[in-house]
Sequence to fold (166 residues):
Amino acid sequence: MAVGVRLNPPPPRGPGLYVLLILLEEPVEVGARTFRGTVPPGLYAYVGSAGGPGGLRARIARHLRRRKRVWWHVDWLTTSPASRVVAVAYCASGTHGPHAEAQVASCLASRGYLPVRGFGSTDDPEAESHLYKTPPGRGAAEAARDALRCLSSTVGGRCSQLSLAR
Fold:
């Protein structure tokens, strides 16, 4: 786990959706095959889903590790020393529709979050992005509440938020 991030309550081991709130203190270069560019400093919300072995707990724990194989677009951000995951909101769901991530992303966009077009959404044609820059003046605590509201409105059920990093 990343230092300073408390998993309380711990995410379930089942499937679900999540939003990582990532603070970039400096620009981060992304060199993925399907997305190349610089992500400027700021607070970002990344929308994802977990359905594989270990479910939400394993996926979120992976995102919080700094050292890992760079596999997803978001790994370019979470492995950078210029980044810090400051909060995670998630909803457990036995089943969620194939467009659930796009619905959460759309909800964030409706709240003024700006898409980083093509980031993390190559397997989701319904979404223009899975990474959204928070609106100016919106802090991590408010962004975490927005993420939780968007997840709840999409999935419902058991939703929670991991405490902010210290």
About this structure: The mean pLDDT is 87.
